[in-house]
C-alpha cells in the first residue's frame, strides 16, 4: 500500500498529537526521552526495551559516520533523546526539528540539563519545507518520522538539498511486508489511524531515494530486530504487570480501542526498514 492509497497526515494535526502525548507521558510517569522503537541485535538478546532503544540510536551513529567536526540534522527529533546521545557519543553538533512545539520545549530543556545546549539545539519546524541553507549538514537521521509526513518524496528531496556532498542519510520507516494479508491486521489500521501515519512501499524505496538526488548505500528489512520484537516485549509486560498497558507503552488517551504497540505483537507483515543513502 502506497501513500496515495492512505489518508495522508496533516503536519499541524501531527504536531498537536505529539504535544498531547508528551504532556500526558510527563503527567502519568511514562515519559521516555526516546520516542522510537528499539533494536535487538540477535533473537536471544536480553536487552531491555530502554537498552534496545539506545542501541537503535547507536546503529544510526555507526552508519552516519560522524565525529566531533560534524553537524547532524535530527529530522523528527522527538524530545531529543537520540540527538543528545549523538552529541555525547560522537561530539557532533546536532540540530533537531519537530512539528510538535511541546517536544521542542522538552528537548531544549533536556539539552540544558545535560549541559550540552551549545551542541544540541532543537527547533520547531516542518520537514516538508526545511528552513536551512543548502549543504548545511554532514548527516541526517530520521527515526520513524517519515511515516508522519504527507509526502516522503518531498521530504527526501529537502534532505538531499541540505546535505553536503558525501553526507549521509540514515532512516527507519514502516512498511507492509510480503505476503500482505487479504484483510489488513487491525493493529496496523490502529497504528495508522491513531498515530497519523502511513506505511511506505518498500518496492519503491530505492527509486524514491534516487528521485530525491540521493545514492543508495543500503536498505535492510529489520522487522525482527525492531517492531516485531518491541511489540512482543510490550505484550509480555502488559501481561505480567498490574499497571495499565498505557503506563508501559505511552498514554494514547483517545478511546478504548486506541492503538498500543502491543497490538502488533506477532504481526509479522508490519515491517520496519533501515535505509542508508548518500548525497553524491
Q: Radius of gyration from the CA trace?
A: 18 Å
| Widest sheet, order of strands | 3-2-1-4-5-7-6
| CATH-defined topology | Rossmann fold
Number of domains as seen in the coordinates = 1
**Number of β-strand runs:** 7
Q: What percent of residues adopt helix (DSSP H or I)?
A: 25-40%
Query: Looking at the structure, what is the overall shape?
Result: globular
CATH homolog superfamily: Vaccinia Virus protein VP39
Q: End-to-end span in angstroms?
A: 30 Å
Number of helices: 9
Strand content: 15-25%
CATH C-level class is: Alpha Beta
* Largest beta-sheet details: 7 strands, mixed
Question: What does this 3D model show about the protein?
Answer:
This protein is of the alpha/beta class and 280 residues long. The protein has helices at 11-28, 49-64, 81-90, 101-113, 152-162, 186-194, 205-211, 227-240, 245-249, and strands at 71-75, 93-98, 120-124, 137-143, 163-176, 215-221, 270-278. The chain has one domain (3-274): 3-Layer(aba) Sandwich (Rossmann fold), CATH 3.40.50.150. The chain has a seven-stranded mixed beta sheet with strand order 3-2-1-4-5-7-6, with helices on both faces. Strand 2 (93-98), helix 4 (101-113) and strand 3 form a beta-alpha-beta unit. The longest helix is centred in the N-terminal third of the chain and has 18 residues, at 11-28.
